[in-house]
């Protein structure tokens, strides 16, 4: 049976990985990351914040009080580890309730009550007025008796007497599982604190890691717009297609469902807003959110020739894609 690693060994292992592998646990949008983005904004260069929905799933914002998509991976592993214990507890509680139901049914339907009643009367009559008759009446008359007997009995002592667990007993039984779930949820915030402690003791290494993360996200965003040009064109063609008259009717007359019937950005699929940009080219009408339109360098990849995109919009310079320390 494998024994868990001691906490001290885990600390040194994390420190070695933190200093040795620049990609290890490098998913946090720290304050220095925001400062880099703000400097680039002032210089008029391409920025990353706010991140796209797809990008938010790969990073962690340390100051958010909620558990984020990147942290759900580790949380899922922890919850999966305690799943057998929870299933065992559920099985035991279900078995307890089933046994109680069986024995209670037996007690209710097997109960029998017996009632026995008897009565008798003994009377001897001696006739005559002789002395012997009078003597016999006095002697035998004492034997004259009468009685009524009633005997009631049941089989209750032989029947099972099950006791149902109350809500407090079930709560006490499930309390350790609830505490384990709470610890699993709190562990995500412990991982954030672990990175903060490492950054405090290795500030130069932390800056290099943040710079690497920023540059890596810049490269991925540039590659994203290049590789998904075909998908962008297909989405724009779907938007240009005629919509069903029922959809148009709901869009104009039902404000409650209008938000689900709005057109979406052909890049990130964000709903159309008043700030969205609609391509003015005839028969194009592609919709872009403001951030995606900036990423496209104000050129629509749907109606712009590929040669022009290759020479301007998609060919970011190295100075624009990297942030020098």
Automatic annotation (TrEMBL):
Residue ranges of the RING-type domain?
Answer: 265-304
State the compartments where it is located: Membrane
| Keywords associated with the record | Membrane, Metal-binding, Transmembrane, Transmembrane helix, Zinc, Zinc-finger
Q: What cellular component GO annotations does this protein have? A: membrane
| Chief location category | membrane
Write down a Pfam family by its short name: zf-RING_DCST1_C
Q: Which residue spans traverse the membrane? A: 79-100, 169-191
Q: What is this protein called?
A: RING-type domain-containing protein
Q: Which organism is it from?
A: Marmota monax (Woodchuck)
Identify the taxonomic lineage of the organism of origin.
Eukaryota, Metazoa, Chordata, Craniata, Vertebrata
